Amino acid sequence: MQTFQRALTILAAVLLVAGAVPSLGQEPDQPRIARGELLKVDISTRTIVIRADEGQQMLFSYTDDTKVTGADSGVVGLAAMTGTYLTVQFVVKSDMKVATHIDVIKKSAWSIPRS
To answer: Which end of the chain is more exposed for a tag (fewer CB within 10 A), N or C?
Structure first.
């Protein structure tokens, strides 16, 4: 009888853990922030590329809901502003970084670390 109870307890524990595993890697859409120099705006694919402070290039998609401050005409206005410094607030959805807010930083207020 004890063997049956022990086996049932182990089975229940395994099923409980197995049910929790798929949710372990799923976090709510936590906003993240990246900062860097604007390299490219592609209006047709609705993406922007920045060179982050750490040196790596980062690709972001944007939507009609993406808010832009410091640029005329929203994201379209950024196309003429390559080389400017941005702060990008984003969430990760389906392995894509989706910009929720893009803030253009005035040149006098930033300096990009150079190696």
So the answer is: C
Instruction: Name the token pair of 29.
Output: 């859409």
The pTM assigned to this predicted structure is 0.69
Measured between its terminal Cα atoms, the distance across the chain in Å is 70
As given in the structure block, the two tokens for residue 74 are 């929203």
Hunting for tokens 């709510």 — which residue is that?
28
Judged by DSSP in three states, 48 sits in: strand
Q: pLDDT tens across 96-108, in order?
A: 999 999 999 976 5
- pLDDT tens, position by position, 9-67: 564 554 444 444 444 454 557 899 999 999 999 999 999 999 998 899 999 999 999 99
Amino acid identity, residue 78?
L
CATH topology of domain 32-108: OB fold (Dihydrolipoamide Acetyltransferase, E2P) (2.40.50)
Place of tokens 């969430």: 91
Q: Taking a C-beta distance cutoff of 8 angstroms, is the pair 50, 58 a contact? A: yes
Helix (H) or strand (E) segment spanning residue 62: strand 57-69
Other beta carbons within 10 Å of 60:
21
